[in-house]
Amino acid sequence: MTRSIRRHYSVNGASHDVDLALEKGRLHGHVDGRAVDADARVVRTFPTGAEVVVVHDGGRARAIVRRDGDVVHVAVRGRVFRLAVLAARQEADAAVAEGTELFVASPMTGVVRQVAAEPGKTFAAGQTLVVVEAMKMEFAVEAPRSVVVDEVRAKPGDRVDIAQVLVTFRGDAK
User: What is the dotted CATH code of the domain comprising 103-172?
Assistant: First the structure.
């Protein structure tokens, strides 16, 4: 599943054109016409934003991104940037805008023991998608709502990190 933004922002009185996509662990696109290409991973999400780790030009940064109406706050490396939306969103996934997860991630570092999820298969809210084990404890990763599976990114026996995306969704099941 691709997450993308295409907006015009104002930061400290200057206008910026942002066209970025996060797809399979890569952040790519353009900011003010300059190419952006980096490894990126969503560590955790919350109703108004996410915590993201970006590796770019040999450096690593952890950022907290939070949306408050038409303002996006980005906290990174001890600084907070306030991005005011100048133009309405041209492309957006409505589910992301509403804070609905388009994936489930591993709740802990461990080993995948069972995978019930299959691309195209529908799961009801609460049904087990994947089981992860760590130190003899198993954790069932469940569907957050009724969903259709898009991609399964783990198989039994795989070692996974905490917050690693395990299953992505096409959207809600009808």
Answer: 2.40.50.100
Question: Residue 96: pLDDT above 60?
Answer: no
Give, rounded to a whole angstrom, the gap between the first and last alpha carbons of the chain. 18
CA 75, CA 49: separation in Å to the nearest integer? 12
Strand pairing of 128-134 and 147-152?
A: unpaired
Class of domain 3-97: mainly beta
- This prediction has a pTM of 0.47
C-beta of residue 89 within 8 angstroms of C-beta of residue 5: yes
CA distance 132 to 140: 7
Amino acid identity at 41: R
Ranges of beta strands (E only) in the chain are: 3-11, 14-23, 26-31, 34-46, 49-56, 59-68, 71-76, 79-85, 103-105, 110-115, 122-123, 128-134, 137-142, 147-152, 159-160, 165-172
Q: Mean pLDDT for the chain?
A: 80
- Boundaries of every domain in the chain: 3-97, 103-172
Query: What DSSP character marks residue 96?
Result: H
Least confident of 51-60, 67-76, 94-103: 94-103
Return the SS3 of 94. helix
Q: Please give the structure tokens belonging to residue 89.
A: 């969103």
Contact by Cβ (8 Å): 87, 7: yes
